[in-house]
Design goal:
The protein is mainly alpha-helical and 125 residues long. It has 6 helices and 2 strands. Part of the 30S ribosomal subunit. Forms a loose heterodimer with protein S19. Forms two bridges to the 50S subunit in the 70S ribosome.
């Protein structure tokens, strides 16, 4: 099992797909890494030599911000917005959608499970 940037990447998948298991590396970055190192896209991780795994590890450490560093940077950016008390920071603090989505209906992912309002009864006629 190859370990890159502190993540065990799956061995039976293609290199292009398994690199995406690293936080901060998506489809385009994975493709760029394979092209820079000359690794064919259909090659599987278990077919890589130790030298190729080492080259991938060094390239990612040198040129990409991944895993802990990237998570820390994102958290610091959100914390900075919250400390400034700007609109986006207040939305983060309240746990509401930040980018202008409606909240009258939907927004359940950000707001959490719906809570029933006590004392409100249906009127039947």
């Amino acid at each position: 099992m190859a370990r890159i940037a502190g993540v065990n990447i799956p061995t039976n998948k293609r290199v292009l797909i398994s690199l995406r298991y690293i936080y901060g590396i998506g489809p385009s970055n994975a493709k760029d890494i394979c092209e820079q190192l000359g690794i064919p896209e259909d090659r599987r991780v278990n077919q890589l030599t130790d030298e190729e795994v080492l080259k991938i590890r060094e390239l990612i450490d040198r040129e990409y911000r991944v895993e802990g560093d990237l998570r820390r940077e994102n958290a610091m950016n959100i914390k900075r917005l919250m400390d400034m008390a700007c609109y986006r920071g207040l939305r983060h603090r309240k746990g509401l959608p930040v980018r202008g989505q409606r909240t009258h209906t939907n927004a359940r992912t950000r707001k959490g499970k719906a809570v029933a309002i006590a004392g409100k009864k249906k009127v039947t006629k």
